Amino acid sequence: MATDRNASGGGGAAARPLGPRARMFTLMVVRALTKRGSRLTVALGAIAVGAAVVFALTSLYFDISIKMSEELRTFGPNIIISPHVDEKQGGESRLADASLLESAAKSLPADRMVGATPYLYGVVRLDRGNAVLVGADMAAMRALAPYWQVDGGWIAASFDDRNAMVGRRLATSMGLKVGDPVTIVNRDRSTQASVTIKGIMDTGEAEDDQIFINLALAQKILNEPGKANFAMASIVADGAEADSLAASIGQRFPGIEARPIRKVSEADGQILGKIDGLMALVALIILVITTLCVNATLTAMVAERTPQIGLQKAIGASDGSIVAQFLAETALVCLVAVAIGIVGGFLLAQLLGQAVFSAWVTFRPGMVPLTLGLCLIAALAAAMLPIRGAVRVVPARVLRGE
């Protein structure tokens, strides 16, 4: 019998309904939220807009480093890999095995790699004068230098030994056009090759005075089999990350050093820093505006509910219960608004991602508690002054109609 009573008592405790005070508290909160639809709609909308902007900007913040770095890669490579230069031996550069330079470049993360190629330079004789010959993986060059403006076409395959690309100034000075045949002869006239001009490129840089062919053909013409001066790589990384990746190459490949191209990598970091700061400032301003809007709405609600608050206090409600009621109302409104805001914020992030980067923004679950926390802090901060006013309501004055 005792066991049955204990079991029954335990089951009753587990299913025990809310007490009178809890029921009254819940009823007051529900009635407050359902009877003041217009004012709560304003507060709900303000928090939802704030949550949407915060969620969108924080989602962009965590994607922007990668997406912006991908955009900046259209301006050329950002890491150079070369043989180590010994200052004690005069600091003269030397040739290295092209395969070693290529292996060093391929050791960079494949998912961050845009393109990489070794380079071999030499002075050669063309049909109408001397020129600087550059040998490279021309299939990779298209990824490394997408900013080149090319008349004609690119050399599409790394094994193509029949075609060349010529810089605009060199083509103008020698009267070369797309489709013209050109004979390339090395300086001691021991080796030569005939190629066809497939493309003429405008780069705005030194390449406008150079002729480009595939690396294997350049090694043959210059009598430097398997050699290259250096390699260049374009990777998706900001300045600090590029430094770290370059340092890892020097550790893994003795005799090889890698360093970021400062002008490019520092520009990456400066642009990203400014954009990150701008987004943080916009999010802060939106949160401040949200706080002020919610504060004004709750202040109006407290003034409207002064008779109710006075009556509650007259029949025994404590200041703590009044505070708890307003905090519960604010928290519930905030939860609903944030749920709406996260959906709107994700859609806004996609619009911004497509407009700025032509890419979709990844949904990050970690942004949900962050957005909720920030909006909840803003909403509760907005509720402090109205709640303080509610606590200061004097029941006697309310009952006298003052």
Layout: helices, strands, pairs:
Elements: H1 2-14, H2 20-35, H3 37-72, E1 79-83, E2 96-97, H4 98-106, E3 113-126, E4 129-136, H5 138-144, E5 149-152, E6 163-167, H6 168-174, E7 181-186, E8 192-202, E9 210-214, H7 215-221, E10 227-228, E11 230-235, H8 239-252, E12 256-260, H9 262-304, H10 306-314, H11 319-357, H12 367-391, H13 395-399
Parallel strand pairs: 4-9, 6-8
Antiparallel strand pairs: 1-11, 1-12, 2-10, 3-4, 3-7, 3-11, 5-8, 6-9, 7-8
Radius of gyration: 35 Å
Order of helices and strands: HHHEEHEEHEEHEEEHEEHEHHHHH
Largest sheet: 6 strands, mixed, barrel
* Total beta-strand segments: 12
Helix amount, in percent?
55-70%
> Rough shape?
rod-shaped
Keywords: Cell membrane, Membrane, Transmembrane, Transmembrane helix
Organism: Consotaella salsifontis
Protein name: Putative ABC transport system permease protein
GO cellular component, one term: plasma membrane
